[in-house]
Amino acid sequence: MSRYALGLDYGTNSVRALIVDIATGEEVATHVSNYLSGQDGILLDARDPDLARQNPQDYIDGFYDCVLGALGKSQVSPEDIVGIGVDTTGSTPLPVDEHCVALGCKPEFRDNLAAQAWLWKDHTSFAEAKEITDKARENGEPYLAKCGGTYSSEWFFSKILHCERVAPEVFAAAHSWIECADFIPAFLTGQTDPSRTARGSCAAGHKAMHNPAWGGLPSKEFLAKLSPGMAALHDRLYTDVCPSDQVAGYLTEEVAAKSGLKSGTPVAVGAFDAHMGAVGSGIKPGTLVKIMGTSTCDIMVAPYDRELPDVPGLCGIAHDTVLPGMYGLEAGQSAVGDLFNWFVRRLCPPEYAGLDAHEKLSAAAAELKPGESGLVALDWNNGNRTILVDPQLTGLLVGQTLHTTAPEVYRALIESTAFGALRIIERFEEYGIRVEEIVNCGGIAEKSPLTMQIYADICNRPMKISRSAQTCALGAAIFGAVAGGAFPDVPSAVAKMTGVKDTIYTPIPAHRAAYDELYAIYKELHDAFGLGVKIDLGSIMKRLRAIRAANS
Questions:
Q1: What is the DSSP letter of 390?
Q2: Which of 391-406 are b and which e, b meaning 16 or more Cβ less than 10 Å from the residue's Cβ?
Q3: Whole-angstrom Cα distance, residue 186 to residue 192?
Q4: What is the pLDDT at residue 146?
């Protein structure tokens, strides 16, 4: 008799349920539920472009809708589902009351943006992130060493501190704060005490500065330097964390009855989508997994038997955050798919507009040679996540003329994200972390051969594609299977349930020279605008013209 696992993937705009045969990795059924609130599921404020929140009720409603949909498409009996895994975006913290109820779900806070979930791409706390960074450095605290030396506005404590300052009524009403990756398992398993809810090592280690070297979270004394309220919150957070192969709890009768699942089904400890996507892509030491969507996350692992250096600009080096028993290393870019979508939505001319705009632009851009447009761009329209860790940086396009076309700009934007990806690879290897292979997953890897070929050419490395088009949900299902006792450990499940496609994008040697020249200019602009390094700006436009002339 076949047995199955259920993976739940909470993304930026929707939640997906995936039912997987644990013996083969066959994806039996899937269903996607779009969040109903805001714009594409995101609560925005026209007065503040840095604000991005979500309605936690959408998470709950989306769970029931996508699970019922997936079960309805399959012949799977709920009795045969051995376990449930959950991944979410992150850092996406939300305030909860003493019973672990999200404040955003309570009538008195339903219309208060600060009481909602603070989505990963919310950058309103950039000043607080700088303050946390500065105070940690001034006081000689170790907390920044494992998160690249700079705390980010995308992360847990900066968002909570900002809430205290702009919405004190929400901060005062919050008994505690919980990552979305921990909130969903808590809801499914009926946890009503935030202090006893299972907290995942993934969110804690990468976004909340949790590390066993200093006993867990940053100290109460350090948080007191930020505010008395933050110090008081310290005792209402958590100390212990768990990897995602552990059981967070068991599905309640109420949730089971409404979702069609079996009560008592084990639910694994939650983690972030990119980290579970890396597992669903078959990650191992030496493999870099690029999860390519609205943003990208670059994930690697390393065994505990080697000593890792602290890597400046990396989003984190933490324990048990990808594969239990290994370090998880995270980097990434804040806008990739979002960057391409911005161009299509805001600047695309009529002849390329429509539902198939990306396909039209990609087809035209594929006809261009590297360097033919004479353009180079910086991929910072949503700030820089790695290696500069600066949300206030913005995009840049250099070299356009009155003859520049939309496909040329579109290709330059793709190239800019590939240049940013190469800079991340270089940063890993500058600190002795070898990238031996690259496996890509996510919508862009699946749908855009142009992007994959450009990445292969610019990074000068083969680009493999994960066998699954739903690697985050698959990774969640893998952890559900392990938590449910179907496998002794995660590597055993990965060996059975993952793989890569036959198609591999290999570098085209003829493209090497042009991209080497363009990347040199990209790095100069990167360092000039990102680090304040003085460069010869006066030569850049003329060098781009020369590259265009040589490749036209």
A1: B
A2: bebebbebbbeeeebb
A3: 8
A4: 87
